[in-house]
């Protein structure tokens, strides 16, 4: 033991340096027994103090670990929430991009279909005008009168012609199928 840690009772205890009366050997053995029992008692008190200190330090460490675990749990919950928001934004952006691409494809297909149908219609219109010009030229040369009507539906051209010549009227009704592929 250090001198600083000695108790006041121990300071008054006899030391080998002090001249004292010599005691009998029987008293000496009882004193040593008392000193040993006193040391044992001090050791047991110290052991109890060490146990209390260990318990308190353990409590502080466990409390610190509990606080650290709670803080980590809070951060994990927050991160999971943020992560779900990030994933939802990514999913929404991918969905928006996909939808824009789909609308672009549909619009392009509609334009191409419109262009093809318009091209077919223009070809049919040109054919009708060609036929009309030949008939008009023929009528002029034969001095007859041609009256006629035509209707164009999705897949057919209905033609009704009435030709009035000197010999008499001639009525022609024709239904011409159009070569439109679907």
UniProtKB/TrEMBL annotation:
Presence of keyword Transferase: no
Q: Give a GO biological-process term.
A: positive regulation of acrosome reaction
Cross-referenced InterPro entries, in alphabetical order? IQ_motif_EF-hand-BS, IQCF
- What segments bear the compositional bias annotation Basic and acidic residues? 1-10, 20-42
Going by the entry's taxonomy, the superkingdom of the source organism is recorded as Eukaryota
Per the record's keyword annotation, is Repeat included, yes or no? yes
What Gene Ontology molecular function terms does this protein carry?
Answer: calmodulin binding
Q: Give the region (Disordered) as residue ranges.
A: 1-42
What do the Gene Ontology cellular component annotations say? acrosomal vesicle
Q: Which UniProt keywords apply?
A: Repeat
> What's the name of the protein?
IQ motif containing F1
């Amino acid at each position: 033991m250090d001198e600083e840690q000695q108790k006041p009772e121990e300071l008054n205890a006899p030391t080998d340096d002090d001249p004292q009366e010599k005691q009998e050997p029987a008293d000496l053995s009882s004193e040593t027994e008392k000193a040993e029992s006193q040391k044992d008692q001090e050791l047991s008190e110290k052991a109890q103090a060490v146990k209390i200190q260990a318990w308190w330090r353990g409590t502080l460490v466990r409390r610190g670990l509990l606080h650290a675990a709670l803080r980590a749990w809070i951060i994990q919950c927050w991160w999971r929430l943020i992560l779900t928001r990030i994933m939802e934004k990514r999913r929404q952006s991918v969905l928006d991009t996909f939808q824009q691409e789909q609308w672009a494809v549909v619009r392009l297909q509609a334009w191409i279909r419109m262009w093809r149908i318009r091209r077919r219609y223009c070809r049919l219109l040109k054919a009708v005008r060609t036929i009309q010009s030949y008939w008009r030229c023929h009528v002029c040369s034969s001095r007859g009168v041609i009256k006629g009507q035509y209707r164009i539906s999705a897949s057919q051209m209905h033609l009704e012609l009435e030709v009035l010549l000197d010999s008499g009227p001639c009525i022609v009704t024709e239904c011409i199928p159009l070569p439109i592929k679907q």
